[in-house]
Structure formats: C-alpha cells, structure tokens
Amino acid sequence: IDSTSLRLGGLISGTGSNLQALIDAIESKNLANVEIALVVSNKADAYGLQRALTHNLPVVYLPWKERAESEARLAALLRLFRVDLVVLVGWMRILSASFIEQFSQHIINLHPALIPDDGTGYTYTTRAGTQIPVFRGLQVVKQALDAGIKTTRSTVHYVTPEADAGPVIGREEDTRQEADTEEPRRERLTPVEHRL
Ligand code: GRF
C-alpha cells in the first residue's frame, strides 16, 4: 500500500449502513488521502448501491454464480480500480482461500460478534477471566443471544481463509444488557459498528 494514499474497495450485500459510515468518516475527517475507489454488490437491490451512487462512487453489481468465475471477475475489478484494501462491509459470500491469498493482508471484515486477538479458536477469555464462546457464520447476534451472552460486540479483523477468523484490528461493544431479542440487539449494535 502506498502510504500517501489508500484506495478502498467496499464489498456489500445489503443495507450498506457501514459503507455509509465509511463514506461519512472520510468526509467528516477530511481524509484527503483515503477514497472509496469502488463498491461491489452481489445483490442488484442492495440499498448500499444507492448510498454509493448518491456519493458519486463507482458501483458494480456482480451476480454471484459459480464461485471461481465470480471471484475471477471480482479480482479483475479490484485490480482495474486499483484497490489497495478490500473492506467487507456486510458482504454475505464466503471467499475462497485462493482469492484471499491473492489479496493477502489486504482484506478486512466487520463481524457482529467477538473474535479472539489472533482470530482463531472457539473461546475468548475476557479481561475479567470469563471464558465465552466465539460465534461465526450466520445470525451471530442470535447465536450469542441464544447462548445467553449479555454483551453484544463487533470486531474488525483481517480476513484469512477460515471464515470469520483472522487477526483482530479493533473491537467495540454494547454493554447495555436489557435487550433480550435479536432485532433490538442488532439495532443497538449498528451505531457501535459504525464507530468501529
Ligand atoms: C453488519 O452487522 C456487519 O457486522 C455484518 O453485516 C452487517 C452489515 O450491515 N457483517 P450494513 O449492510 O452495513 O448495514
């Protein structure tokens, strides 16, 4: 990565509120050397595409069919738009090891649960010494809720071939405990993720 400029490639599948948070952060902090060079969605109706268009960002809808072919198209797009860092912001497709290796240490992901520092393992030890499970895959907010975990967290981490694993860059948490259903928890996690 050229230290004087950073071209981000945002990969989305849905609402794109975290993409919006990135757009807003770049604008409000006057990060003149950071730009979103490209937004790719695997869903034509992803609202995040509209958000990107509103900000005059280049967008591509990439129908996700056979994985190897789709990944080859995605890699070509990322190169064409000279993307330095791929940011998975609500991207709902598993990327293959060979794709990830092509962009090794240049893909980061936002995951709505806690991941251990080195990204691996199935338990996390809190500062208080409590062991809590690590949730990966789909519906992780619900998984945590069902397991009786009181605190909702989110992690930004480097992407490695194992899904929802890889070294941690940052974490945020919502420590309020009163929400005991999935939707309010997700809603409350949203601003936490945007900060992160
Ligand atoms: C976030 O909760 C993120 O952690 C997960 O997908 C969600 C994306 O939300 N990977 P949005 O599309 O950015 O609003």
Features:
single chain, 196 residues, alpha/beta, seven-stranded mixed sheet, two-stranded antiparallel ribbon, 31% helix, 24% strand, binds 5-O-phosphono-beta-D-ribofuranosylamine
Structural class: alpha/beta
**Can you list the ligands bound to this structure?**
5-O-phosphono-beta-D-ribofuranosylamine
Write down the overall geometry: globular
Number of discrete helical segments:
6
Radius of gyration: 17 Å
Instruction: Give the overall average pLDDT.
Output: 94
Short description:
The protein has six helices and nine strands. With 196 residues, the chain is of the alpha/beta class.
Describe the overall structure.
The chain has six helices and nine strands. It has 196 residues and is of the alpha/beta class. The strands form two sheets. It has a seven-stranded mixed β-sheet. The protein has a two-stranded antiparallel sheet with strand order 6-7. Strand 4, helix 4 and strand 5 form a beta-alpha-beta unit. Helix 1 packs parallel to helix 6. The two termini are 22 Å apart. The mean pLDDT is 94. Bound molecules: 5-O-phosphono-beta-D-ribofuranosylamine. 5-O-phosphono-beta-D-ribofuranosylamine binds next to helix 1 and strand 5.
